[in-house]
Amino acid sequence: MTLRYQTIPVTAFQQNCSLVWCDETMEAAVIDPGGDLPRILAAVQQRGLTLKAIWLTHAHIDHAGGTGQLAREQALPIIGPHTGDQFWIDGLAKQSQMFGFPPAESFTPTRWLLDGDSVSIGKQTLQVRHCPGHTPGHVVFYSPEIQRAFVGDVLFAGGIGRTDFPGGDHATLITSIKQRLWPMGDATVFIPGHGPESSFGEERRSNPYVSER
Fold first, then answer.
1. What is the CATH number of the domain that holds 26?
2. Which H or E run contains 125?
3. Domain of life here (predicted)?
4. What confidence tens digit (pLDDT) does each residue in 12-50 have?
5. How far apart are CA 114 and CA 130, in angstroms?
6. Which run of H or E residues covers position 50?
7. Quick check: is 95 in a domain?
């Protein structure tokens, strides 16, 4: 019994939407369904999964744009992000227009997340860490069991999240990375919101924004 995942790039922003599931129960959650819902649902069907929840790292349009529609059509609870991103959720329609996305349905999270919370799917449980800086309410999902972290736009292979949007703060982001991500261990592989996977150890060695060399 273990946690498995599949990354599905969606939208023109090639945002890494992730399906995560318990391989015993085949129950799944979808992390950051930003759009391209038919592609996401096709992957669910192809793997024989039962979609049970939507988990959000943060509420930027490329991560949250498909959330309202998916939750309504599939009767799914919306878990996350942290309340700090309420204003981004309130502004989804405006974000849609600004970035040329299809109109996003508004939604209210079923459950907001706090640092130290946990989320479960099937018989698998992941830890929640609040990692503000890119957005005030950004959270990450961490599975110690498989040493994987779904970090949204906090950290990338060779980069970090933008901090020039409303509510962003560079110093806060660096603190989040060093205090909340690094303790997960160098061997932990992270799935970023965009681009390829990497490990925390690799980024500590070589990422120019946060390296400790």
1. 3.60.15.10
2. strand 124-130
3. Bacteria
4. 999 999 999 999 999 999 999 999 999 999 999 999 999
5. 6
6. strand 50-55
7. yes
Tell me if 213 is assigned to some domain: no
Comparing C-alpha atoms, which of 145, 138, 143 is closest to residue 162?
138
Q: In this structure, is residue 119 part of a structural domain?
A: yes
Count of structural domains within the chain: 1
**Tens-digit pLDDT profile for residues 65-97:** 999 999 999 999 999 999 999 999 999 999 999
Q: Say which residues have a Cβ less than 8 Å from residue 200's Cβ, sequence separation at least 6.
A: 149, 181, 182, 184, 185, 186, 187, 188, 190
23 lies in a domain?
A: yes
Domain limits for position 12 = 3-206
Owner of token pair 């459950």: 111
Which burial class, exposed, middle or buried, applies to 118 when counting CB atoms under 10 A from its CB (0-12, 13-18, 19+)? Answer: exposed
